[in-house]
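>> received
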Amino acid sequence: MAPQAPETTGAKRYWRLLSRFAAASAVATAISQVVFLVVYALGAAPVAATITAWLAGAIPNFTLNRRTWGSTGRAGLRGEILRYAVISVTTALLAALATHNAEALAQALFPDARSAQVAVVWGAFLGTYAVMFVLKFFLVDRLVFPDRR
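>> returned
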Protein backbone atom coordinates (compact mmCIF):
# COMPACT_ATOMS: atom_id res chain seq x y z
CA MET A 1 0.00 0.00 0.00
CA ALA A 2 1.44 3.38 -1.04
CA PRO A 3 1.82 6.03 1.65
CA GLN A 4 -0.71 8.81 1.48
CA ALA A 5 0.32 12.44 1.37
CA PRO A 6 -0.57 14.36 4.51
CA GLU A 7 -3.71 16.47 4.34
CA THR A 8 -2.93 20.05 3.41
CA THR A 9 -3.98 22.34 6.22
CA GLY A 10 -4.17 26.01 7.04
CA ALA A 11 -3.28 28.67 4.52
CA LYS A 12 -1.96 26.20 1.91
CA ARG A 13 -5.27 24.36 1.97
CA TYR A 14 -7.25 27.55 1.49
CA TRP A 15 -5.06 28.78 -1.37
CA ARG A 16 -5.39 25.41 -3.11
CA LEU A 17 -9.17 25.40 -2.62
CA LEU A 18 -9.51 29.05 -3.59
CA SER A 19 -7.56 28.58 -6.81
CA ARG A 20 -9.65 25.56 -7.79
CA PHE A 21 -12.86 27.31 -6.72
CA ALA A 22 -11.83 30.28 -8.88
CA ALA A 23 -11.21 28.00 -11.86
CA ALA A 24 -14.60 26.30 -11.41
CA SER A 25 -16.24 29.70 -11.03
CA ALA A 26 -14.51 30.94 -14.19
CA VAL A 27 -15.91 28.00 -16.16
CA ALA A 28 -19.40 28.45 -14.72
CA THR A 29 -19.24 32.23 -15.20
CA ALA A 30 -18.19 31.91 -18.82
CA ILE A 31 -21.06 29.53 -19.52
CA SER A 32 -23.66 31.58 -17.66
CA GLN A 33 -22.49 34.90 -19.12
CA VAL A 34 -22.75 33.63 -22.69
CA VAL A 35 -26.17 32.13 -22.01
CA PHE A 36 -27.37 35.33 -20.29
CA LEU A 37 -26.17 37.58 -23.11
CA VAL A 38 -27.72 35.42 -25.82
CA VAL A 39 -31.06 34.90 -24.05
CA TYR A 40 -31.41 38.53 -22.93
CA ALA A 41 -30.23 39.98 -26.25
CA LEU A 42 -32.84 37.83 -28.02
CA GLY A 43 -35.53 39.60 -26.00
CA ALA A 44 -36.15 37.53 -22.88
CA ALA A 45 -37.01 39.29 -19.66
CA PRO A 46 -34.01 39.81 -17.37
CA VAL A 47 -35.35 37.40 -14.77
CA ALA A 48 -35.87 34.66 -17.39
CA ALA A 49 -32.38 35.25 -18.80
CA THR A 50 -30.92 35.12 -15.29
CA ILE A 51 -32.64 31.86 -14.40
CA THR A 52 -31.61 30.24 -17.69
CA ALA A 53 -28.02 31.39 -17.27
CA TRP A 54 -27.97 30.27 -13.64
CA LEU A 55 -29.07 26.78 -14.60
CA ALA A 56 -26.45 26.60 -17.33
CA GLY A 57 -23.64 27.52 -14.91
CA ALA A 58 -24.77 25.94 -11.63
CA ILE A 59 -24.51 22.32 -12.73
CA PRO A 60 -20.88 22.41 -13.92
CA ASN A 61 -19.99 24.63 -10.95
CA PHE A 62 -21.35 22.11 -8.43
CA THR A 63 -19.64 19.20 -10.22
CA LEU A 64 -16.27 20.94 -10.36
CA ASN A 65 -16.50 22.15 -6.75
CA ARG A 66 -17.42 18.69 -5.56
CA ARG A 67 -14.17 17.44 -7.05
CA THR A 68 -12.26 20.40 -5.59
CA TRP A 69 -13.32 19.49 -2.07
CA GLY A 70 -12.64 15.80 -2.72
CA SER A 71 -16.20 14.63 -2.42
CA THR A 72 -16.92 11.48 -4.38
CA GLY A 73 -19.54 8.82 -4.51
CA ARG A 74 -23.12 8.91 -3.37
CA ALA A 75 -22.52 9.24 0.36
CA GLY A 76 -23.71 12.68 1.38
CA LEU A 77 -24.54 13.72 -2.18
CA ARG A 78 -28.16 14.66 -1.42
CA GLY A 79 -27.15 16.93 1.46
CA GLU A 80 -24.39 18.52 -0.62
CA ILE A 81 -26.83 19.23 -3.45
CA LEU A 82 -29.41 20.72 -1.09
CA ARG A 83 -26.92 22.95 0.72
CA TYR A 84 -25.34 24.04 -2.56
CA ALA A 85 -28.78 24.72 -4.04
CA VAL A 86 -29.69 27.08 -1.20
CA ILE A 87 -26.53 29.12 -1.73
CA SER A 88 -26.82 29.03 -5.51
CA VAL A 89 -30.52 29.87 -5.64
CA THR A 90 -30.01 32.77 -3.22
CA THR A 91 -27.28 34.13 -5.49
CA ALA A 92 -29.53 33.69 -8.53
CA LEU A 93 -32.37 35.52 -6.79
CA LEU A 94 -30.04 38.41 -5.96
CA ALA A 95 -28.91 38.46 -9.60
CA ALA A 96 -32.52 38.41 -10.81
CA LEU A 97 -33.35 41.36 -8.56
CA ALA A 98 -30.25 43.24 -9.74
CA THR A 99 -30.96 42.62 -13.43
CA HIS A 100 -34.62 43.56 -13.04
CA ASN A 101 -33.69 46.87 -11.42
CA ALA A 102 -30.85 47.43 -13.89
CA GLU A 103 -33.23 47.00 -16.81
CA ALA A 104 -35.52 49.71 -15.45
CA LEU A 105 -32.53 52.02 -15.07
CA ALA A 106 -31.13 51.13 -18.50
CA GLN A 107 -34.45 51.76 -20.23
CA ALA A 108 -34.69 55.16 -18.54
CA LEU A 109 -31.10 56.09 -19.44
CA PHE A 110 -31.00 54.57 -22.93
CA PRO A 111 -34.59 54.33 -24.21
CA ASP A 112 -33.59 53.79 -27.84
CA ALA A 113 -30.30 51.92 -27.49
CA ARG A 114 -30.84 48.19 -26.99
CA SER A 115 -27.10 47.45 -26.97
CA ALA A 116 -26.57 49.92 -24.11
CA GLN A 117 -29.49 48.37 -22.21
CA VAL A 118 -27.99 44.90 -22.69
CA ALA A 119 -24.61 46.16 -21.44
CA VAL A 120 -26.09 47.71 -18.29
CA VAL A 121 -28.21 44.66 -17.43
CA TRP A 122 -25.33 42.29 -18.20
CA GLY A 123 -23.10 44.38 -15.92
CA ALA A 124 -25.60 43.94 -13.09
CA PHE A 125 -25.67 40.18 -13.69
CA LEU A 126 -21.87 39.88 -13.74
CA GLY A 127 -21.47 42.26 -10.80
CA THR A 128 -23.77 40.24 -8.59
CA TYR A 129 -21.74 37.09 -9.15
CA ALA A 130 -18.47 38.96 -8.64
CA VAL A 131 -19.63 40.30 -5.28
CA MET A 132 -20.89 36.89 -4.19
CA PHE A 133 -17.68 35.07 -5.16
CA VAL A 134 -15.87 35.41 -1.82
CA LEU A 135 -18.96 34.80 0.28
CA LYS A 136 -19.82 31.72 -1.76
CA PHE A 137 -16.31 30.32 -1.29
CA PHE A 138 -16.63 30.38 2.49
CA LEU A 139 -20.21 29.09 2.43
CA VAL A 140 -19.28 26.21 0.15
CA ASP A 141 -16.29 25.36 2.32
CA ARG A 142 -18.11 25.61 5.64
CA LEU A 143 -21.63 24.44 4.75
CA VAL A 144 -21.68 22.40 1.55
CA PHE A 145 -18.58 20.25 2.07
CA PRO A 146 -17.86 20.54 5.81
CA ASP A 147 -16.82 16.90 6.14
CA ARG A 148 -13.97 17.47 3.72
CA ARG A 149 -12.27 19.92 6.07
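>> The CA atoms of residues 105 and 120 lie 8 Å apart.
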